Amino acid sequence: MKITIQKTTNPKPIPKDDSKLGFGRIFSDHMFIMEYTAGQGWHDASIKPFQDIPLSPAAMVFHYGQEIFEGLKAYRTADGSVQLFRPEENFKRLNISAKRLVIPEIPVEDCMQALTELVKLDEAWVPHSDGASLYIRPFIFAKDPFVGVRPGNEYYFIIILSPSGPYYETGLNPVSICVEENYVRAVKGGMGFTKTGGNYAASLIGQDEAHNQNFAQVLWLDGIEKKYIEEVGSMNIFFVIGDEIITPELNGSILSGITRKSVIELCQNWGLKLSERRLGIQEVSDAYDRGELKEIFGTGTAAVISPVGLLKWGDKVMEINGNKIGDISAKLYDTLTGIQYGRLADEMGWVKKV
Amino acid sequence: MKITIQKTTNPKPIPKDDSKLGFGRIFSDHMFIMEYTAGQGWHDASIKPFQDIPLSPAAMVFHYGQEIFEGLKAYRTADGSVQLFRPEENFKRLNISAKRLVIPEIPVEDCMQALTELVKLDEAWVPHSDGASLYIRPFIFAKDPFVGVRPGNEYYFIIILSPSGPYYETGLNPVSICVEENYVRAVKGGMGFTKTGGNYAASLIGQDEAHNQNFAQVLWLDGIEKKYIEEVGSMNIFFVIGDEIITPELNGSILSGITRKSVIELCQNWGLKLSERRLGIQEVSDAYDRGELKEIFGTGTAAVISPVGLLKWGDKVMEINGNKIGDISAKLYDTLTGIQYGRLADEMGWVKKV
Ligand SMILES: Cc1ncc(COP(=O)(O)O)c(C=O)c1O
Ligand SMILES: Cc1ncc(COP(=O)(O)O)c(C=O)c1O
């Protein structure tokens, strides 16, 4: 793929204080953009100064939500180099989302080329402090100026970069989450296994009500029986019950997280008993009552491992591991961040130097 | 509400041949736009030349689908005046969608004022031929340049106008539809009762597969048991079984259509037996086998009444009323379009002159 590069003549100052970065608010100097036109395919790949995109108010994305995205990070290692964590997995998943949303696919190699050239150009934007990283957001949306329900004939594929601080500013502390019992985020046959706007739009109201009760996140149940655990707002979820580590199986309504996949592979390597299976909230609650619910943790690119200290289900509030980080959560966090930041050897072949 | 008006200095030619308008492709000279900022509320209402909107690539609408819309029409009457059909209902529904999507509401009076001033200014764009109309698309989306899942702090509310031809160019002919058995559009607890992008995005793949089999639309079943009839892509649906007219009840996963509501009110006025209730696809199929399935029709702003001539469920293809328009469908179509175009007296008080 030929990528035209137009460098900014007006570079922005790179933030000096990583502790003030926050998450997803600041954007680097450049972006990748490529266009799709029916009959012509993907064309005009370019890297340009980060800039506003002019769109007709009739552009389909404003009306029919035909949009997908990905999220991954570039990490600065101790020797100053920059590396990515399993980036091909993100672009494979982008294409899985594309298929469900009737969006034209993009070869993974082309995505990787676009990403690599962009990150190289804006390499100075990758933060240097531990826990900080360059968050990468690839996304595709339909842009035809047409007000009618059908798949778009025109799309943009864009990648933007956002230097971001540690997800939890106070370090790896347990979060409180609550089971959502009224709203549904996704259902089998729907779009839950994809990263598309509608899933997140559907989740806002539950998240909002959880925040009002001082919970950080919602734990979603299946949309059919409202009994089985699915995932957290933007994390997959794991439970340690006795000596079994359990995470909900990929059933079509939850996202196949890359951190989830990595955690499963690590646990298996370590000889731990790991099950991907249907898990009822009742089973979790019963295990708690028996004193066998040892740890709960979320997994996702943003926070890597997020230990859960409190789990609320109806009137019952379960305190997990004395609201402290558990051993397995801690070991997974240290291992994954160790590999991501290059402190540990990359025995799994997960890391890609830029 | 104070609306600033900036007229175009470069008016576009108004299409002369209504038969070439199509649907949702052409836009009038002006648009209404108003902005929301957290802490400040809705502000800067204005009518401007129809123009592109510049947005940051990080604008939330591209990523998290926090967007809602409405669809209604302005009709040209024989005396040359312009009128709307139950427009307040659309803005009430816009606010119902807003609540579910955690979008700030807009008073119905303000919406009506915006709409009325805009349609007055672009009145010449309302087509003159029968069956043609000015399609009106109000919509709201989150626009903050922020890449993280939370409700937006900044929104646009926009109204655009599109002169459109008759929905079916060949006149009121029966359409073929097929029952969707793999994909789910919406589920109880989700967003099915709202007009938000995600519902339509979820439906594209089913619609696409139906088109490939030469069906015009998909008939969606409930997402939980996959047994009960919900609605068609962008229409509600009615069945005449024996002397009962049945439409699925509003259960949280289907849209409360304004045409649906009007059809129910008309049927009740006419003394027909009308039920809003759960209706299984098996019940429909059984009625067909007994020879009691008299008519099926969809209802929606775009096509008003759309008779269904063929209904496919699995391997079974049901031909309804000899693939001809039924009496009730025809009477409803004539009555509704009669009121909309001012040929019939507006006894229900549904029409609003602009
Ligand atoms: C809904 C949802 N589930 C799970 C995840 C975790 O996936 P990953 O580990 O690939 O970041 C994310 C975030 O990416 C998400 O948005
Ligand atoms: C999903 C859906 N159902 C039903 C309808 C019909 O609603 P109305 O009669 O208000 O146009 C529409 C179209 O507006 C729709 O998009």
Helix/strand/pairing category of chain A: alpha+beta
Helix-strand topology string of chain A: EEEEHEEEHHEEEHEEEEHEHEEEHE
Helix count, DSSP H or I runs of 4 or more residues of chain A: 7
What oligomeric state do these chains adopt?
homodimer
Radius of gyration of chain A, whole Å: 21 Å
What's the count of strands of chain A? 19
Brief characterization of the structure:
Two copies of one chain form a homodimer. With 354 residues, chain A is an alpha+beta fold. Helices cover 23% and strands 31% of the residues of chain A.
Explain this structure:
2 copies of one chain form a homodimer. Chain A is of the alpha+beta class. Chain A folds into 2 domains: 4-164, D-amino Acid Aminotransferase, Chain A, domain 1, CATH 3.30.470.10; 175-340, D-amino Acid Aminotransferase, Chain A, domain 2, CATH 3.20.10.10. Helices cover 23% and strands 31% of the residues of chain A. Chain A is built from 7 helices and 19 strands. Chain A has helices spanning 61-64, 87-100, 108-121, 197-212, 258-269, 281-289, 327-340, and strands spanning 4-5, 30-37, 41-49, 53-55, 67-69, 72-76, 82-85, 133-142, 154-164, 175-179, 217-221, 229-232, 236-241, 244-247, 273-276, 293-300, 304-313, 316-319, 351-353. In chain A, the strands form 2 sheets. In chain A, strands 1, 2, 3, 5, 6, 7, 8, 9 and 19 form a 9-stranded mixed β-sheet that branches. In chain A, strands 10, 11, 12, 13, 14, 15, 16, 17 and 18 form a 9-stranded mixed β-sheet that branches. In chain A, α2 (87-100) crosses α3 (108-121). The mean pLDDT of chain A is 96. Bound molecules: pyridoxal-5'-phosphate (2 copies). Residues 71, 231, 234-236, 255, 257-260, 299-301 of chain B line the site of one pyridoxal-5'-phosphate (PLP).
